[in-house]
């Protein structure tokens, strides 16, 4: 994390927050992180975060799920123990395929959803019993917080600028152990 | 306005060319009358021969298509074949007429959903949607006339001799009888067109309104219309499509037709929007709106596949003769387009529209849209043709002319609808949100 001081800037409206983020970036101040009580639409773009690659992951997971379902049903229902269900062809996967479509679909969704959530947790470094990282509990209620890297900026001009963007509260945090 | 003119000119250009072709429809109709009897003799034998190899399907199809008639008795079979051939031009006209009518109808439904849901993203597209629904009045009247005058060509239950011999049809005659059926058809199109009329009126009134009264009216009408539509759409699907094979039924059927309707409609909205934007008439529509339309195209394509497969799999699995005829006929006689349609309507949209960035590229959406529309034309073709003409189908001049004729009429009416007023709505409470819509 930042080597110098960090400013915790609090806002109480998401529109003001969005505007502030844009202004901060246009002045080339470095935003370390933004904490919000709910997902703010367009905030990732305003912060200049790179596009999420979770969609690609989910596509790959889906394909894995589809393959698992196909291989599994092929082994269970065709190779290992062909069963005659309602006179359906039981020695060919392709001819019996419509019966397996629901399973293929469900496992595709299952794999995509679960692996995607797990990936998201791992990528966000969240695991059970982890201590919360948010610097101010009010960000879980109705406040929005921007962590601005104070670096070697002049603190007075910076905080004046921040108040001008609509900040409701600014606190200077000296370099601590940021998790 | 300019597009309206282009639409008009184009519409007029394509209508005359098809009026000639329309007379050819009649000519070919006559030809079928005269030549049908000699020509089909060989064919019929051939079909019988092929069917002999599939004892099951033969039995099943005999039950379905001939409705109790003995198919092997030459005279009656020939009569049946002739009947199917006579039904062909009717079916061709119906497929094309319904295809374009359902686009207008689906757009109306989509519009009603947007207003009833108070959607924030779509008001900039309302004029486009209203323009497309301009086709609903002529389109629905033509469709109703076709189904009325096609009569026995489409609907075996209207044949009294047949019903007299058929206990199943007798039991259904409480619902499937001509007067009630006719009244239902008239109620449908009156209801739909009334909503279209009042929606358009209130939407235009909103432009000059001081208060929110027109908006509230529009909201109210939309809610009523959606309730009305979901009932009438189901019965419409039963009346106009499912009763072509009156012994066969499927509870999913109405939903499945609805999926086709809505996906085609959203696709046409997207295509019209892109083309209007391309000539600079819709500067206030940004690529996020297009993105949302493309998402709907993608989503409803998958929805259609889901319902199509839901219907197919249950019937395939149960394999009950009176149900499975529907698919045996389509798979045996229409094999390439039957499976081709699934690829076009499912695999293509999945592959093309999966990527989020592609949904913002207008030419990409147009290409995907055209493919989807072709796929859903085939879908309607497969709903009607196997039930009416059986194995004697083709895609020839009649079908193509009908398609062109209704396409011309569609473009003409949509162009007129778009040209009349400014494409930019005013005073909709969600307009500002819609204009700033970004994804």
From TrEMBL, chain A:
<keyword id="KW-0472">Membrane</keyword>
<dbReference type="Pfam" id="PF11821">
    <property type="entry name" value="ActD"/>
</dbReference>
<dbReference type="InterPro" id="IPR021776">
    <property type="entry name" value="ActD"/>
</dbReference>
<feature type="transmembrane region" description="Helical">
    <location>
        <begin position="97"/>
        <end position="121"/>
    </location>
</feature>
<feature type="transmembrane region" description="Helical">
    <location>
        <begin position="54"/>
        <end position="77"/>
    </location>
</feature>
<protein>
    <submittedName>
        <fullName>Quinol:cytochrome c oxidoreductase membrane protein</fullName>
    </submittedName>
</protein>
<keyword id="KW-1133">Transmembrane helix</keyword>
<keyword id="KW-0812">Transmembrane</keyword>
TrEMBL record, chain B:
<feature type="transmembrane region" description="Helical">
    <location>
        <begin position="253"/>
        <end position="276"/>
    </location>
</feature>
<keyword id="KW-0472">Membrane</keyword>
<feature type="transmembrane region" description="Helical">
    <location>
        <begin position="337"/>
        <end position="354"/>
    </location>
</feature>
<protein>
    <submittedName>
        <fullName>Quinol:cytochrome c oxidoreductase quinone-binding subunit 2</fullName>
    </submittedName>
</protein>
<feature type="transmembrane region" description="Helical">
    <location>
        <begin position="221"/>
        <end position="241"/>
    </location>
</feature>
<keyword id="KW-1133">Transmembrane helix</keyword>
<feature type="transmembrane region" description="Helical">
    <location>
        <begin position="397"/>
        <end position="419"/>
    </location>
</feature>
<feature type="transmembrane region" description="Helical">
    <location>
        <begin position="134"/>
        <end position="155"/>
    </location>
</feature>
<feature type="transmembrane region" description="Helical">
    <location>
        <begin position="361"/>
        <end position="385"/>
    </location>
</feature>
<feature type="transmembrane region" description="Helical">
    <location>
        <begin position="90"/>
        <end position="113"/>
    </location>
</feature>
<keyword id="KW-0812">Transmembrane</keyword>
<feature type="transmembrane region" description="Helical">
    <location>
        <begin position="296"/>
        <end position="317"/>
    </location>
</feature>
<feature type="transmembrane region" description="Helical">
    <location>
        <begin position="175"/>
        <end position="195"/>
    </location>
</feature>
């Amino acid at each position: 994390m930042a080597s110098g001081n960090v400013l915790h800037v609090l806002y109480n409206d998401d529109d003001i927050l969005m505007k502030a983020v844009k202004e901060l970036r246009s002045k080339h101040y470095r935003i370390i992180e933004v904490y919000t009580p709910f997902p703010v639409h367009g905030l990732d773009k305003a912060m200049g975060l790179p596009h999420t690659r979770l969609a690609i992951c989910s596509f790959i997971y889906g394909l894995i799920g589809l393959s698992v379902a196909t291989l599994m049903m092929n082994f269970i229902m065709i190779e290992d123990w062909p069963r005659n269900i309602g006179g359906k062809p039981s020695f060919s996967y392709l001819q019996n395929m419509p019966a397996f479509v629901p399973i293929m679909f469900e496992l595709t969704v299952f794999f995509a959803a679960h692996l995607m959530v797990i990936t998201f947790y791992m990528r966000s470094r969240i695991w059970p019993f982890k201590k919360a990282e948010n610097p101010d509990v009010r960000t879980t209620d109705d406040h929005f917080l921007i962590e601005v890297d104070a670096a070697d900026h002049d603190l007075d001009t910076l905080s004046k600028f921040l108040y001008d963007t609509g900040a409701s509260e600014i606190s200077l945090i000296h370099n601590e152990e940021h998790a | 306005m300019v597009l309206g003119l282009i639409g008009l000119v184009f519409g007029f250009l394509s209508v005359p060319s098809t009026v000639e072709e329309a007379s050819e429809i009649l000519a070919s109709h006559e030809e079928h009358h005269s030549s049908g009897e000699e020509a089909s003799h060989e064919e019929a034998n051939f079909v019988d021969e092929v069917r002999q190899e599939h004892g099951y399907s033969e039995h099943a199809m005999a039950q379905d298509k001939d409705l109790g008639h003995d198919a092997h008795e030459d005279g009656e079979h020939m009569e049946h074949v002739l009947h199917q051939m006579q039904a062909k031009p009717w079916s061709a006209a119906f497929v094309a007429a319904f295809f374009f009518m359902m686009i207008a109808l689906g757009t109306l439904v989509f519009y009603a959903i947007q207003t009833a849901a108070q959607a924030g993203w779509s008001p900039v597209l309302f004029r486009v949607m209203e323009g497309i629904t301009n086709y609903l009045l002529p389109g629905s009247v033509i469709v109703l006339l076709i189904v009325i005058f096609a009569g026995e060509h489409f609907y075996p239950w209207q044949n009294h001799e047949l019903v007299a011999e058929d206990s199943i049809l007798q039991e259904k005659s409480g619902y499937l009888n001509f007067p009630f059926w006719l009244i239902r058809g008239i109620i449908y199109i009156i209801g739909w067109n009334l909503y279209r009329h009042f929606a358009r009126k209130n939407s235009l009134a909103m432009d000059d309104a001081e208060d929110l009264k027109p908006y509230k009216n529009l909201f109210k009408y939309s809610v009523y219309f959606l309730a009305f539509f979901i009932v009438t759409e189901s019965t419409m699907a039963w009346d106009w499509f499912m009763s072509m094979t009156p012994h066969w039924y499927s509870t999913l059927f109405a939903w499945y037709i609805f999926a086709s309707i809505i996906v085609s409609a959203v696709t046409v909205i997207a295509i019209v929007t892109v083309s209007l934007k391309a000539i600079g008439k819709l500067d206030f529509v940004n690529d996020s709106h297009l993105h949302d339309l493309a998402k709907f195209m993608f989503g409803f394509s998958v929805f259609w596949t889901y319902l199509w497969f839901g219907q197919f799999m249950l019937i395939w699995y149960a394999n009950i003769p009176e149900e499975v005829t529907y698919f045996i006929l389509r798979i045996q006689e229409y094999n390439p387009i039957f499976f081709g349609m699934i690829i076009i309507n499912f695999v293509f949209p999945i592959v093309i529209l999966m990527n989020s960035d592609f949904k913002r590229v207008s030419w990409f959406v147009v290409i995907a849209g055209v493919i989807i529309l072709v796929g859903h034309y085939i879908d309607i073709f497969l709903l009607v043709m196997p039930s009416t003409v059986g194995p004697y189908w083709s895609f020839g001049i009649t079908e193509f002319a009908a398609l062109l004729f209704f396409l011309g009429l569609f473009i003409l009416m949509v162009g007129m609808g778009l040209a009349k007023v400014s494409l930019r709505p005013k005073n909709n409470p969600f307009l500002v949100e819609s204009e700033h819509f970004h994804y």
